[in-house]
């Protein structure tokens, strides 16, 4: 019989709600004293790189105002040996912290969505495990940041009013870093629930009105219009609101007459490839595909998302049942 055991608990303050949480494995630079390890250099000390696991959480304090006026960024170190969470850093910020994302190798930068702002920090781990969070820049993006995604040096921002926008991370001299206006925006007023990065040029966007969009930007624009336009290349209405989604693949055993029994179909990868109504030729030029194939793409996309939603609902039901068992055991 499988069960979950609570190893550690961190209590939030009164009126504080948890909005988002991410886990990262960040390398820490440390030193070994002479005799403290199998290898040591001249002078009695040798450097090594250690990996530490951190959990970053964003919260909001609920008050009588329409938009939360205060939130906290909590940084925990995961002590795997003692199975404990150690609070190593805390930042109180004006506004609700509803999105967290990291950028660059070894999670060099931390991006935080707070109300209608995107904030940029650098994450530094010093000798002895000291945690340093340095603020660099902030940028107002729309009305209320709902989603943050990172593709290389670009930040995709999903807003509750202004659709999708892009912001660039620009590194300058003397360790100066800034957020600048990105190459394009969706230019449609939708409430974004989720953004899935499909490639460097294409994203899948889910809105509150049950719509699913595939948006594309031109990587080599020929004019200013192409440069700043994020155009919609496909759209379907799912029939019900999708609150969140993930991009992946799963195997489904097909037992139909036209397929051998036991054959596995990677629907996730197939949908990812078929969900592009355009393709590039050898010269990198985009070629339009016929409408008949575009309609086929929409059907495959619907079937894929329906199958994924069913799996997610089953997983949520199992998790709910497990949580109820834990509560009953604690009450006893």
TrEMBL record:
Region spans: Disordered: 274-300
InterPro entries given in the database record: RSE1/DDB1/CFT1 (IPR050358), RSE1/DDB1/CPSF1_C (IPR004871), WD40/YVTN_repeat-like_dom_sf (IPR015943)
One Gene Ontology term of the molecular function aspect: nucleic acid binding
Residues covered by the RSE1/DDB1/CPSF1 C-terminal domain: 3-244
Entry GO CC: nucleus
Gene3D superfamilies: YVTN repeat-like/Quinoprotein amine dehydrogenase
Domain of life: Eukaryota
Protein name per the record: RSE1/DDB1/CPSF1 C-terminal domain-containing protein
Organism name: Strombidium rassoulzadegani
Organism lineage string: Eukaryota, Sar, Alveolata, Ciliophora, Intramacronucleata
């Amino acid at each position: 019989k499988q069960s979950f055991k609570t190893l550690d608990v961190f209590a939030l303050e009164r009126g504080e709600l948890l909005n988002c949480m991410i886990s990262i494995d960040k390398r820490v630079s440390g030193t070994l004293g002479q005799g403290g390890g199998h290898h040591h250099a001249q002078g009695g000390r040798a450097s090594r790189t250690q990996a530490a696991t951190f959990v970053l959480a964003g919260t909001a304090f609920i008050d009588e105002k329409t938009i939360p006026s205060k939130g906290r960024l909590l940084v925990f170190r995961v002590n795997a040996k003692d199975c404990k969470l150690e609070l190593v850093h805390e930042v109180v910020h004006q506004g609700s912290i509803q999105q967290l994302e990291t950028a660059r190798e070894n999670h060099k930068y931390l991006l935080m969505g707070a109300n209608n702002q995107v904030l940029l920090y650098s994450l530094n781990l010093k000798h002895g495990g000291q945690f340093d969070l340095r603020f660099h820049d902030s940028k107002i993006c729309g009305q209320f940041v709902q989603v943050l995604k990172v593709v290389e040096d670009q930040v995709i921002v999903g807003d509750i009013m202004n659709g999708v926008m892009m912001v660039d991370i620009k590194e300058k001299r003397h360790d100066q870093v800034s957020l600048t206006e990105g190459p394009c925006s969706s230019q449609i007023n939708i409430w974004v629930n989720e953004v899935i990065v499909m490639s460097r040029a294409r994203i899948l966007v889910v809105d509150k009105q049950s719509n699913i969009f595939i948006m594309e930007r031109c990587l080599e624009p020929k004019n200013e219009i192409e440069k700043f336009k994020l155009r919609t290349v496909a759209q379907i209405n799912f029939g019900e609101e999708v609150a969140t989604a993930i991009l992946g693949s799963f195997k489904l055993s097909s037992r139909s007459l036209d397929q051998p029994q036991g054959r596995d179909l990677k629907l996730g990868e197939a949908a990812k490839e078929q969900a592009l109504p355009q393709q590039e030729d050898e010269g990198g030029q985009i070629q339009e595909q016929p409408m008949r194939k575009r309609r086929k793409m929409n059907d495959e996309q619907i079937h894929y998302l329906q199958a994924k939603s069913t799996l997610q609902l089953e997983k949520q039901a199992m998790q709910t049942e497990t949580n109820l068992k834990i509560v009953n055991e604690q009450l006893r």
